[in-house]
Amino acid sequence: MPTINLRNVEKSYGGGAANAVSDLDLEIGDGEFMCLLGPSGCGKTTTLRMIAGLEHLSDGEIQVGERKVDSVNAGIFVPPEKREMGLVFQSYALWPHLTIERNTDFGLRLRKVPKAEREERVEKVMRTLGIEQYRDRYPSQLSGGQQQRVALARMLAVNPEVLLLDEPLSNLDARLRLEMRAELKRLHNEFKTTIVFVTHDQWEAMTLATTIAVMSEGRLQQVGSPNDIYDRPANRFVAEFVGSPPINILELGDQADGLAAAASRYLSERYPSLSQVSSLGVRPEAVRFTSDASEVKEGSFAVPAEVAGVLPTGGSWIIELVAHGHKLFAVSHELPEVEAGQSVTVWAKPKALHAFDASGRRSQAADALFCPPKVQ
User: Fold this and answer.
1) Same domain flag for 218 and 338
2) Cα–Cα distance, 191 to 223 (Å, whole number)
3) Looking at residue 16, which CATH number applies to its domain?
4) Is 189 in the same domain as 321?
5) pLDDT tier for residue 1 given thresholds of 50, 70 and 90
6) With the C-alpha atoms ordered 266, 270, 274, 275, is the resulting torsion angle positive or negative?
7) Residues 10 and 155 reside in one and the same domain
8) Residue 46, in any domain of the structure
9) Among the four 78, 133, 259, 334, which has the fewest Cβ within 10 Å?
10) Is residue 172 part of a domain?
11) In a domain, 375, yes or no
12) Does residue 288 have a pLDDT over 90?
């Protein structure tokens, strides 16, 4: 499968509006499962449509393997039907008057694939997706999850070099979404197709992708593995967008008071060189609390707090804490032995802290101090 390269890509619809996509440089590797992740209006679907050829670039170029498929400067534009890509929309777009088998082999018939090969490919993909028993039914006779499988089967049958998915699971209920995520992961492992998947659902991206590209307001914020995105967010937008419950953020500086002032004192006393840190974040999963202050690990950021509430979510608990008048959230995967009104000590290890400068960028200097390399 080919590598897809987007270089200096921009998309503007004119009329004085801000660019839908600005200065986008992105490489999607051979056989990669890339998720374009971001809130509504961030440019992720526009990017997918430009890769597919449904939108013209305003500037830049897109190259698939050794072939340029869109280049403003070179005057090149390869139409969608010649890009060897499959596109699955949010709506299933099935032909209501055709059976499931005829919907599945529709692309193969358009390409005039010989009957024997067509039947073999359709049989294999229908069996893989578990829809062979519905071959003689019509779309209206299937559930939403089954229709989604048919839409995927239709694309996989033509064996596209690249599979483009535009929020294909958003119309499904929670159980079916979970099943289809597992199905997509398995299909990617089996077919090794390069997949570009658009979603605003962070958990969908985290569970499916080999690589995530986070976008905001038409600009790329960070590209990395799911673990990179979660554990080392490049800036505050990524840190606050990815994670549920969201990351706890403390605004530091001269005007800081309460908990933020305590965090400022901690940094100035333990890491005096970090004068440029403007805000500090800690994931709820990394927040610890104890009624015995002697359990706090040496060198940790620790403050007294009060438990405001314990919220069960089924399998885990969210603990609401108030420290120096500021709310903090912690997550526990074991039944917490605390109750509302109880006094505790809240603490976090230095390696769990995320430091950002005034522009919102991650502080590399802080990372070096919080997580010093181990001496061999």
Assistant:
1) no
2) 24
3) 3.40.50.300
4) no
5) low
6) positive
7) yes
8) yes
9) 334
10) yes
11) no
12) yes
Number of domains in the chain: 2
Residue 317 structural domain: 248-370
pLDDT in tens, 181-197: 887 888 788 878 899 99
Which of 298, 285, 273, 288 shows the shortest CA–CA distance to 369?
273
**Helices (H), ranges, the chain:** 44-52, 100-104, 106-110, 115-128, 144-157, 174-191, 202-208, 226-231, 236-241, 258-270, 364-370
Which of these three, 216, 241, 266, is where a domain ends?
Answer: 241
Residues 180 and 266 grouped into a single domain? no
Alpha carbons within 13 angstroms on the beta-carbon side of residue 153 total 29
Residue 376 forms part of a structural domain:
no
Percent helix, strand, coil in the chain, to 5, is 30, 30, 40
Q: Which two tokens stand for residue 170?
A: 């958003």
Integer angstrom CA distances of residue 65 from 5, 127, 172: 8, 31, 34
Domain closes at, from 241, 262, 280: 241
**How far out from the chain centre does Cα 251 lie?**
26
Q: Is 321 exposed, middle or buried (0-12, 13-18, 19+ CB in 10 A)?
A: buried
CA separation, residue 84 to residues 62, 187, 193, 355 (Å): 14, 18, 12, 44
Stated pTM of the model: 0.87
Q: Are strands 288-290 and 317-323 parallel, antiparallel or unpaired?
A: unpaired
| Under 8 Å between Cβ of 222 and 208 | no
Please name which of 173, 258, 182, 208 lies closest in space to residue 37, comparing C-alpha atoms.
Answer: 208
Length of the chain in terms of residues written: 376
Same domain, 216 and 253: no
Q: Are residues 189 and 335 in the same domain?
A: no
**Average model confidence (pLDDT) for the chain?**
90
- Is 314 or 372 the better-scoring residue by pLDDT? 314
Question: Could you read off the pLDDT of 107-120 as tens digits, one per residue?
Answer: 888 888 899 999 99
Tokens 């005007």, residue located: 255
Give residue 54's pLDDT band: very low, low, confident or very high (50, 70, 90).
very high
Peptide bond into 245 cis (omega under 30): yes
